[in-house]
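The material for today's practical consists of a large collection of protein records. There is nothing in a record beyond a sequence line and a structure line. Backbone structure tokens are a discrete shorthand for how the chain folds in space. Nothing more is needed to start thinking about how sequence determines fold. As an example, a complete record with its sequence and its structure tokens follows.
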Amino acid sequence: MKQVIMYKGTERLWHWLQAALIIFLLLTGFELHGTYEIFGYKNTYEMHALAAWILIIVTIFAIIWHICTREWRQYIPTLKDIDKVIHCYLIGIFYDEPHPYKKTPEAKLNPLQRLSYLSILLFILPVLIISGLVCFFYNELQIMGLSISFETFAIIHTISAFLMLIFLVIHIYMTTTGKTPLSYTMAMITGREEIGE
């Protein structure tokens, strides 16, 4: 085994910043829906909107970083050995079978991760952002003569938020499936991870 730099500093920064913003947006979003009350509606709305704008900026910078560093190649989907990866997560993990995918800094994501992250990046996150912007600028859009249903976009935004929450729960669980329950999390903190020779 040898230690390698698996995650660059910029990559780790946007990952943790994006995670914190998404969790905060979920918490404030639930409060806006009346699930509980901590900050009050007005304060929660303002914090939710601010966090959303910061997430949009972080996302734009992450896209630029992925393009400039060519890290976007990590997300190119493949079905090669996906059946083995699914078997590993559904059955093999409980029998201590070795993971069938050997990651490297050049290919960090297994086939299932590639499909999952690609669906987040190309579907769920854009739908969340666009529906959120429509809700945020609803009055201005009405003034411009666009006849759209606020309720429809609010429902789309909420459904997308629940899909993001489901992804988050699965993602957090999957981080515990390394050599130790914290090894993947430590790799995303330090950037270093052990891989086979």
User: Anything to note?
Assistant: DSSP finds seven helices and two strands in the chain.
